[in-house]
Write a structure and sequence with these properties.
By secondary structure, the chain is of the alpha/beta class. 43% of the residues lie in helices and 13% in strands. It has a domain at 78-195: Dna Topoisomerase Vi A Subunit, Chain: A, domain 2 (3-Layer(aba) Sandwich). The termini are far apart.
């Protein structure tokens, strides 16, 4: 005996495959789409149908771009400093940095982090292209903006090794303790970065 129509259970199952969406959340989303105007569901369906055809990757930075572009506006804009590159793991890390309105360099998206446990090695990331950009664009500074995790630290260290003796300043985003966090709850990486980045009062 079916409790719900197959069309609805198909939607619930599809939504449940999204990261962070459990069974109950998927049911709520599906029910919301059923009880509201069909136009909303159609709009979401159309957006999803056009998703892969409408998106591409910048050939220099590997940032997300429109499918009809070759290079990211964040690279071609003459106001951006091509000699400074912020290296990030994923495209949406760019969004977070851009929201600060305090960075005017360019970006390089690695496409992940080195993680042997997940079967991701350096050769699967855009590290060789980064090294090529350092030479082509006469880069003076690389900002390693990877996560403060074991994978982020390993990836940053590997990139430093690949840069070798090139005359490039390699910096790391400052790490520290968020306001309101007790020391006893801070992880070891955050604490060690906070100690390294301590400032005189």
């Amino acid at each position: 005996m079916q409790i719900l129509p197959p069309a609805l259970t198909d939607v619930i199952e599809a939504l449940g495959k999204l990261p962070g969406v459990g069974a109950r959340t998927a049911e709520r989303y599906a029910y919301y789409l059923v009880k509201n105007d069909a136009g909303k569901a159609r709009h979401i369906a159309d957006s999803l149908a056009d998703l892969h055809q409408g998106i591409g990757f910048c050939k220099k930075t590997f940032a997300l771009i429109s499918a009809d572009q070759e290079l990211s506006d964040l690279y071609t804009d003459p106001k951006r400093d091509k000699t400074v590159i912020a290296v990030v793991a994923e495209p949406f890390d760019i969004v977070a940095l851009e929201k600060t309105n305090s960075y005017s360099g360019t970006y390089h998206v690695l496409g992940g982090l080195v993680s042997p446990i997940d079967g991701i090695g350096p050769e699967q990331l855009h590290i060789s292209e980064l090294i090529q950009r350092i030479d082509d664009d006469k880069v003076t500074e690389i900002i390693l903006a990877t996560n403060a995790s074991v994978e982020g630290e390993s990836t940053a260290l590997y990139i430093q090794q690949q840069i070798g003796d090139r005359p490039v300043k390699v910096t790391r985003l400052a790490r520290g303790l968020p306001i309101g966090v007790d020391l006893e709850y801070a992880d070891q990486i955050t604490l060690s970065r906070a100690l390294e980045g301590r400032q005189a009062l």
